[in-house]
Amino acid sequence: MRSIVSKSKHIHLLPLLNPKTPPLKPSLLRHCTTTVTATATATITPPPHIITQVLTLLQNDYTTTTNQPHLLTLLSSLSPPSYLSITRQLGSTGAALKFLTFLRSHSPDPLSISLTFQAILELASHSGSLRLSQSDIVEKLKELFKMCKEGEISLTKESVMLLVGFFSRARMTEEMLSVYNYVGSEARSGVLGDVVVDGLMRGGRFDDALKVFDGMLDGNGKGRVERRTVDFVFAELMRRESRFRNVTEEGIAELVLKCGKIGVFIKGEWLCKLVTGLCRNGNLSKAWELLHELMDLGCVDIVGSCNAVLTSLERVRDFKRMNLLLQEMKDKGIQPNVVTFGILIKHLCKFHRVDEALDVYQKMVDGSEGILVRPDIILHNILIAGLCRVGRQEEGLEMVEQMKLKHGCMPNTATFNSLIDGFCKAGELDKANELFDQMNMEGILPNIITVNTLVDGFCKHGRVHTAIKFFRQMQVKGLKGNVNTYTSLINAFNNSNNIEKSAELFDEMLDTGCSPDAKVYYTMISGLTNAGRLDDASFIVSKMKAAGFQLDTVAYNVLIGGFCRRKRHDKAVELLADMEDNDVKPDNVTYNTLISYFSENADFRSAHRIMKTMVHDGIMPTVVTYGALINAYCLAGNLDEAEILFKSMCSTTSIPPNNVIYNILINSFCKKGKVDGALSLLNDMNVKGVKPNTNTFNAMFKGLYDKNLLDEALKLMDQMTQQACNPDYITMEILTDWLSTVGETEKLQKFVEGCKVSGSSSEQVSSEYC
């Protein structure tokens, strides 16, 4: 280790680390540090003749029995600052260190020791005649600080700043932090903390820097945190890729609050970014708490943060706290800006309260509430979109003219997109197209949203060829379309039974590098399945899975239904197993489709097995389920099983039969000549409040005709008239043939006129029906 004194003196530090006098106690050290800081700045000039005598003695051998008493007498008459002056004039670090050793052996005054040591540090920090390099000086200071710690010497404020400054510039962060930690917290000034935090951050010690900064804040302002330090720390904290690795948003919020409590508020843009982050990460309660505490502390640059909280409250539909915050802003004099009004107007438009939104807008622009805010294009676009959403696109057009003339806001692409969308949804496609042309004439470039809006509008109103023509024109101009564009077109061609064109567009989408989403895949699978191209649909399924998408229940149902219609039950069952493998739960549609398929093919064992699985999976059979089985039993001529299943349905489940099931049974009973059973079912319908329809009566009329039960048929004709059930051509065909044969054509005429036909021929059913 390099000696810090002149080579000619050969004085080393080791003897100085073990002075004869005992070291000061830690409690006294803390007290002295405070005293030193306060006293060292005083300017007390000692008598010149005493200083001269002291310096003369110090230049000789002042440890002799002759000189030592005289020197001690002279020193006792001096104030502590005089020691600083005397030591500085010794001229060399070696002489100063010898003087310090003498003092520590004879003087208990810690302030004098501290000031003497300060002078030693000052002498060591200058190269002087030794022509030391900067690194040599830093090493010298490092050795002196080591001596200071071992000797428990209190440091003056100036000593601390000198050491910290040198170590900071030399990037010796460990030594700098050691000096900072050595002094008591009450002696740490804001400037000192500023230097330490700055040095630690520049040295890559971010966690230590934050610890020091936090400690400065915990001092409740006694060491006054510098504004520069706050800005320096938060500039790093609020960076997207902050090097403070272990700090959460909640931790940053606590630091912000600590700063606020000592009257230092971070920049509004940083606070807004923090509050927005808290809200987005689901910590709205912390954002609300931080915002209100800062408002209570008097933070004024806070409107952006209020806006962030209002936006989040609106998103979670906490309208009560939205109103509360708006009132608190008013009470505390926090001036809302155009963004604040935009949030409020957007909220009102979202819930179709457009007239209220227009009232807020009017008060904002005329200042009737004491707040005058100039609206911008974003706010106007919110209002125009709100008007178009409720079908008031003509008013939206009027607002465009108003914003241009009164507020100097020129419409942009978003403005025209809202208007075009409004007219497309209203079916006014020519007006939408006219706006598109106006947009181009005014030099406002359309974007993909513009294209998609018009393409979708044309497709939904049956003008698919206009849509594709427009899309091709846009492609030439550089707007290539995205997944939404192709979805609209593919779906439109599917609906027009042009699956070939849909497939062509799907391939085009892949060729242009546009990645399909789940909706596009489902649209293609559905279209191909409905067109009976099941192998092509399966191929799309494989591509969909390869792209990382999974079929949902609806998509599986479409495919299972398609394979069942094509009598490929093996593929349908395979898809059911695939659903289970991928944890996709079958629903009523899935099971009913399979039950219908097996029932139609008279495979009742498989149908009942599927129904049992359905119940086991917690899905209760529906009227469709029972209807499929009952219809299948009837078609197979097994009326006994159909009737058993029907009675089971009525007695053991809460599923009421509908007129479809009754019609199936009545029709089957009549075909089998069991007219009494059919009449009993018809009566059961009336008891249970199930209204028969024309098909019900037609089935009964056929059955009664076969049995030649005319009186029963006439009663049913009156019932049909009373229930306002209109006959169709089948009804008239059956009755005309029957009644003409038996010579009752007049009764048929009365039936057509709505008059009663059973009993007396002159009696009418009611004036309402005749």
From TrEMBL:
<feature type="repeat" description="PPR">
    <location>
        <begin position="693"/>
        <end position="727"/>
    </location>
</feature>
<dbReference type="Pfam" id="PF12854">
    <property type="entry name" value="PPR_1"/>
</dbReference>
<feature type="repeat" description="PPR">
    <location>
        <begin position="622"/>
        <end position="656"/>
    </location>
</feature>
<dbReference type="GO" id="GO:0003729">
    <property type="term" value="F:mRNA binding"/>
</dbReference>
<keyword id="KW-0677">Repeat</keyword>
<feature type="repeat" description="PPR">
    <location>
        <begin position="376"/>
        <end position="411"/>
    </location>
</feature>
<feature type="repeat" description="PPR">
    <location>
        <begin position="517"/>
        <end position="551"/>
    </location>
</feature>
<feature type="repeat" description="PPR">
    <location>
        <begin position="552"/>
        <end position="586"/>
    </location>
</feature>
<protein>
    <recommendedName>
        <fullName>Pentacotripeptide-repeat region of PRORP domain-containing protein</fullName>
    </recommendedName>
</protein>
<feature type="repeat" description="PPR">
    <location>
        <begin position="658"/>
        <end position="692"/>
    </location>
</feature>
<dbReference type="InterPro" id="IPR011990">
    <property type="entry name" value="TPR-like_helical_dom_sf"/>
</dbReference>
<feature type="repeat" description="PPR">
    <location>
        <begin position="482"/>
        <end position="516"/>
    </location>
</feature>
<feature type="repeat" description="PPR">
    <location>
        <begin position="337"/>
        <end position="367"/>
    </location>
</feature>
<dbReference type="Pfam" id="PF13041">
    <property type="entry name" value="PPR_2"/>
</dbReference>
<feature type="repeat" description="PPR">
    <location>
        <begin position="447"/>
        <end position="481"/>
    </location>
</feature>
<feature type="repeat" description="PPR">
    <location>
        <begin position="587"/>
        <end position="621"/>
    </location>
</feature>
<feature type="repeat" description="PPR">
    <location>
        <begin position="412"/>
        <end position="446"/>
    </location>
</feature>
<dbReference type="Pfam" id="PF01535">
    <property type="entry name" value="PPR"/>
</dbReference>
<comment type="similarity">
    <text>Belongs to the PPR family. P subfamily.</text>
</comment>
<dbReference type="InterPro" id="IPR002885">
    <property type="entry name" value="PPR_rpt"/>
</dbReference>
<dbReference type="Pfam" id="PF13812">
    <property type="entry name" value="PPR_3"/>
</dbReference>
